[in-house]
């Protein structure tokens, strides 16, 4: 049986047409976008087109887009860059316990510098309460950062409602939209966010490329200093070939977006139905509604997640878990721990995430392989 990739929430395959555009840019144009000669102007045109595409994808204007090396850098710039540039107005930050580590780790680093950070709980579906955000607000709160869609469970957060809450408050509002970007219709004005993070490799674009949307009034302390690129907000010569790929990936993502959403929802529903038909004992983690269509996080009672992932990989099924091995011990997903505490299910959960090329036949093959692996593991237990 051919290998099946079911880890699209981690990264998506590079679209062949994106690779072609990137290769053509690499071999045909040696110019630096900051140069004024024809080669430089041609490179600048590519960068400008990518910026227009990025802005259009979220209802913004090109001047508010900062290109970065990906979602992690964009999150760091939004959290640490904003906090350091605005600490004269306050040193209080609000975030949630289910954020990506690209937000949580900068927040922890800011705590070491004397900032006060509140990490808000979520309910068992993995969704934060707007009322809890409101209760945590203080006069000296300068930043609220809440992810749009969770990368482990697919839970969608009430971003527009939080944005509306903050309209009369000094706090800036940032959302990590890496998982929702390219799948959902995003508009920064409707969401009422001041900063938004996006990444290209979740939409069949190149790894190592992303951007941060920043409203006009937002001040950031740059993490990189040097030239005047990105309006002095992110120094360094732009990676023109990557940005050509970003531009192409953005165009592709906008094509048949609604149909692709429905297809992914159908694949996820088919997968859950297949598990039920095979009488596999499982629990779904995360909400049944208000969720992303391509992520299914499943707990298999009494099954250790690490050997399960290894056995699935040997069977040709590529999936992942939020767990991490540290010095030989398994640390459960911080997202599931925030949802369920120390419940045993946090040690037996696997994330299946599907993509635009996932077929109905592959879904059935995944379920069949999973059934065989679980039966084999049960016999060895």
Automatic annotation (TrEMBL):
Superkingdom to which the source organism belongs: Bacteria
Catalyzed reaction equations: (sulfur carrier)-H + L-cysteine = (sulfur carrier)-SH + L-alanine
Alphabetically ordered keywords of this record: Iron, Iron-sulfur, Metal-binding, Pyridoxal phosphate, Transferase
Recorded family membership: Belongs to the class-V pyridoxal-phosphate-dependent aminotransferase family. NifS/IscS subfamily.
NCBIfam families: PRK02948.1
GO terms assigned for molecular function: cysteine desulfurase activity; iron-sulfur cluster binding; metal ion binding
Keyword Nucleotide-binding assigned: no
Cofactor: pyridoxal 5'-phosphate
InterPro entries named among the record's database cross-references: Aminotrans_V_dom, Aminotrans_V_PyrdxlP_BS, Cysteine_dSase, EF_Hand_1_Ca_BS, PyrdxlP-dep_Trfase, PyrdxlP-dep_Trfase_major, PyrdxlP-dep_Trfase_small
EC number(s) on file: 2.8.1.7
Domain Aminotransferase class V: 4-365
Family annotation (PANTHER family): CYSTEINE DESULFURASE, CYSTEINE DESULFURYLASE FAMILY MEMBER
Protein name: cysteine desulfurase
